Amino acid sequence: MRWSRSIIWPTLLVLAACTGTRMDEQPNFVWIISEDNSTHYMELFDPHGIATPNIALMADEGIRFTRAFSNAPVCSVARSTLISSCYGPRTGAQFHRRSRLVPLPQGVEMFPHYLKQAGYYTTNNSKEDYNYIKGEGVWDESSRTAHWTGREAGQPFFHKESHPVSHESRLHFKEELMETYRPVCDPDSVFLFPNHPDTDLFRFTSAYYRDKMLAVDSIVGRVIQQLEEEDLLESTFVFYFGDHGGVLPGSKGYLYETGLHVPLVVRVPKKFRHLVDLKRGESSDEFVSFVDFGPTLLELAGIEIPPGVDGLPFLGKRSGSGHHGGPGVHSVSGEGQDIAYGYADRFDEKYDLVRTVRKGDLKYMRSYQPFNVDGLQNNYRYLCLAFEQWREMYRAGELDAVQSAFFEPREPEALYDLASDPYETINLAGDPSYAEQLSGMRMLMDDWVRGMPDLSFYPEDVLRREAFEDPVGFGREHKDHIAELIDIANLELLPFAEARPGIKLTLESADPMKKYWGLIVCSSFGREALDFKEHALELCAHKNLLVRTRAAEFLGLSGLGDPVPVIEEALYQSEDGVEALLILNSLVLLMDGPLTCVFELDEAKLHPAVSQDQQVQRRLEYIRSRMASV
């Protein structure tokens, strides 16, 4: 039977007694989540991975999903997607280390809320890391001691636990570890990603991280054993998955497969096999995204899925019946899902704006600010010795073209055939034989960012001031304006001669956001946009500090002018930490770029709201170190 979401546990007990339905006829759910690991480190998913026998046994007794994806490559954004079943750029939850918590869309709750209302005992042990305001009634307990054993007798449960044994911080070791630790995985024979240099440090790091999968596997085995000992295993769906990709250099935080493609195994209990069409021991190549996980549990529990979410169930009798469409709207086709979307915005102090769509083995990557190189300084990333070595070798000219790409501007769009190029090293966007596929994938992307609509076409400081009280409402009210900004951004995809008239219109517009995006397009073209040097020089005095910064950034990146005084003055005038962080992103890009602009900041001139901002402090720490080395 299908329970009403308004029924709470005591009422449900009465109803069960009246109808003769026993509560133990409802399935239980356990999620075991490992942090920061993609499929690439487990033999179950990748021939270059290490054996994980407990997770492999789960697959034998359940389903291995070969195409499961986090929609975001970093913790808080991925977990916000997971808990809400909503795309972050639609709801204002797309920035990692949020500047402000945002409300969920009207009528949508964190999905455990619906389970709890239907009588489930819900526990989380213990990481949350949401960018949303958490309402009442999500967890019965969320703590380091939370466990299903706290429930009433016979009460169904949902238990989620996260484990940091594979977290990025595990790679923040000192060089001495290489002398004292002998990895199980042999560094001499370990597989290296093609974008990584072949050094002793990279080999050790790659082998050492694969060893962390053994710890993950032990945790999974321990949970399975406990369920079995308590006679719960065959009434409980057990999910094991990674919270996003990572964590070798260039994976976590980036929209490559190493940042998004996660291991997922679901053990199907004997008691509830009838809810799943696939047989135990089978694999599924259906596309599964984090927006789908919540709807899947609700479907298996017989609970109505709220209409305002973006996901679809991938298990249950209504699974595989459509494709992701707009918010809460899905096209029904009778076929399995074969599309997954990804998004990357600010990651700590480092800004970017990248979106991806994967359909089958084709993947389209749209970099809306392609001059923001992947390897731009992010303090926490560079605590990893291999990350630092990678950059040092680039600066010394010791890398090949594939290894160097991480530190160089991207193309505005890229198309990859993952069947032949799983590590996304060959951009097919300029290959005439892929013109039709490129057009189709570009259309999928454009429809998605317009349909949400994607709030990130406004700078984060604007969103924090004007949108974050009601992000979805703001998007609805500004959908047409966002579409106009997307049109401007898409001028990057044209030959410059065709884009020139449109760029000129934007730079002469009275709308500062159109000017802002027109200047970003100019930076994407670089010296090709020489025609707009005078426009940029004039806009260096614009009252909007971010327009001023983007103008100086274009002049600096293209070598057409000195950006230093303009950016320094914009920084001193800013009274908003988020706005200043955007300015600092441009500053670091110019400081570390090929022209190596020299900045001499006087931090005493910074407004307190700027100097006290935690992410600004990260940037200033790095800038001080760079200034001292000049």
Mean pLDDT: 94
Instruction: Please give the alpha-carbon distance between the first and last residues.
Output: 70 Å
- Radius of gyration, in Å, reads 25 Å
Spans of at least 5 consecutive residues whose pLDDT stays below 50 are 1-21, 328-335
- The structural class is alpha/beta
Largest sheet: 9 strands, mixed
Number of strands: 15
Q: Strand share of the residues?
A: 5-15%
Helix content: 25-40%
Form type: globular
Key phrases:
630 residues, alpha/beta, 9-stranded mixed β-sheet, 4-stranded antiparallel β-sheet, 23 helices, globular
Q: Can you offer a commentary on this structure?
A:
By secondary structure, the chain is an alpha/beta fold. Helices cover 37% and strands 12% of the residues. The strands form three sheets. Strands 1, 2, 3, 4, 5, 6, 7, 8 and 9 form a nine-stranded mixed beta sheet that branches. Strand 13 and strand 14 form a beta hairpin. The N and C termini lie far apart (70 Å).
Please summarize what this structure is.
The chain has about 625 residues and is an alpha/beta fold.
List the helices and strands and how they pair.
Elements: H1 9-19, E1 28-34, H2 53-60, E2 62-69, H3 75-84, H4 88-91, H5 112-117, E3 121-125, E4 141-142, E5 157-163, H6 177-180, H7 200-229, E6 236-242, H8 257-260, E7 261-267, E8 282-284, E9 288-289, H9 293-301, E10 322-324, E11 330-332, E12 339-344, E13 354-359, E14 362-367, H10 385-395, H11 401-404, E15 413-417, H12 435-451, H13 460-466, H14 471-477, H15 479-489, H16 496-507, H17 512-525, H18 533-539, H19 545-558, H20 564-573, H21 577-592, H22 608-611, H23 614-629
